[in-house]
Amino acid sequence: MAGIEQAAGVSPAAASRVDEILRAACRVVVSGGASDLRIGTVANEAGVSRTLVHYYFTTRQELMRAAFAYAENLRIEALEAELATLATGAERAERALMRTIDPALEENPALWNEVWSSLRYDEELRPLVQERYRAWADRIVQLLDDGRGDGSVPRGVDSLAACCRLAAAADGVDSILYLGLLDREDARVLLSSCIDRELDR
Q1: pLDDT per residue over 53-112, tens digit each?
Q2: Fewer beta carbons under 10 A from the terminal one: N or C of the chain?
Q3: Are 194 and 169 spatial neighbours (Cβ–Cβ below 8 Å)?
């Protein structure tokens, strides 16, 4: 099979096996880095045979791409559920940005960083990462536009320009945090101050 995209067309039992393999792959990457992502390592982590992992993912690169897409789908689902509880566009945009440094989601930024470092080795991974990053940025722009409509973001704010600066700020804070050069609370304060400046608060 060609990976996660085909999981919807298989039996519930098979879909469950794919799910566990991808969860295991994410754990392997986060705990040991992208270099640890090997069919055998993932099979051991998932408690299944190498043959079974190979059945669904024929190469290490295919498994990496599927694991990244899987983690991103889970992240988006959780994000949208949380955003639905917030009242204004500004609140939703701020939460989407602050979520990049949320300790409860520590696994996902770590996975992003490991995937990012693999781009030079896997050209097929690059368009997937570009697509997911662009979708995230587009969502921030939409949330800022929503805020301009509901009055929580000043009408004079250029949503696209603000998104570019805020995305750069969030990425920078996350990288510094990932390196251990900033503690979590200081990271929150720093990113929050960038958001306040962009939204003229």
Answers
A1: 999 999 888 998 898 889 889 889 999 999 999 999 999 999 999 998 886 655 566 677
A2: C
A3: yes
> Is the distance from CB of 119 to CB of 59 less than 8 angstroms?
no
Read off the pTM: 0.81
Question: The tokens of 188 are what?
Answer: 């929150």
What tokens were used for 124?
A: 């097929």
Classified as helix, coil or strand, 92 is helix
Residue 109 to residue 103: CA distance in whole angstroms: 10
Q: Which two tokens stand for residue 30?
A: 């986060």
Residue in 170, 180, 59, 184 with CA at minimum distance from that of residue 112: 170
Calpha distance 133→199 (Å, rounded): 22
The pLDDT of residue 5 is above 70? no
Handedness of CA 71, 72, 78, 79 (dihedral sign): positive
Q: For residue 197, which amino acid is it? A: R
